[in-house]
Amino acid sequence: MTEWTLAVRDFEIPKETALGLYRLLVQTRLFEDEIYYICSNQTPHNPFIVGKGYLSTGQEAVSAGAAFAITNDDWFPQSHRDMAAHFHRGVTVLEAFQQYRCTKNCPTHGRDGNMHFAKAGTNMLGFTSHMGQNVAVALGMAWAEQYRKTNRVAITTFGEGAAQQGIIHESMNYAVVFKLPVVFLINNNRWAISVPVKEQMATEDLAQRGPAYGMPSVIVDGNDVFAVYRACVAGVERARAGDGPSLIECKTMRMAGHGTHDPATYVPDTEKKAWAARDPVERAKIYLIERQWWNDNEDKALRTAIKAEIDRAVEIAGDDEPPDPATAATGAYSAEYPVE
Q: Is residue 197 predicted with pLDDT exceeding 50?
């Protein structure tokens, strides 16, 4: 597999980039901890959050590392566990809570819940159920940019469960044939709802599928945000150079249930403890402190500030108005080509 290994440089990440990655991890973790707390304590008669939350707890580094490796002009067809990328692309904590409540002032103006949303103008593309469907959307965006002769790329994330679907195989083959500027990022979080990875495939690594289609691939520690970032930079550089797609498998762990309704009792305690010891947020903090770029006082101040922002956002979102039913069709059709 040597000649088909994605060439990842072990470069020193600039201080401000490293600090930015860590702040994003902390913001995402604290926000989703609040979502979990609310969902665990709200009543079904008057819920604060509409539906369920699908959290990225434990695998935040995948989304954060990918988001930092591209520009805001590039495309990010997301999975349902990419809150970090939403924040990096400009979604505020308040907007995120409003989206969870499906209120009038949320990014989709109450037309969708938290799982499929994307804020207009961010080049994030709303997640499309079923799992894996957004990968084909990523090809469309990459192909459009190739046709326009820009240097924009698409990076798309999906889980190891989605990777078993036919559309993933078709998309990877198509991307290689036409050398599309796209990076496939698998967040192998070990569980497809309640199905362990060993019952999903007979091989150890998903990355070996890259060479099978004719593109380079690499396996990275998905709980190391800096490793994910470096790998994504390598894939993006290859795509911008016109050399086609690449595949990155991030080995990580979903340290929560499939959704906030799922206590994940099917996950052995030994596995939970083993991955908790590799918490991506704590590991990034240690990385920064070892370089004397961060300290405990700064960390406490950061967490206090983010928690205050969360508390304020919950208060405002709680008072936000529901969407006006009269506007339900607004934005559903193109104004340029009206549907009669």
A: yes
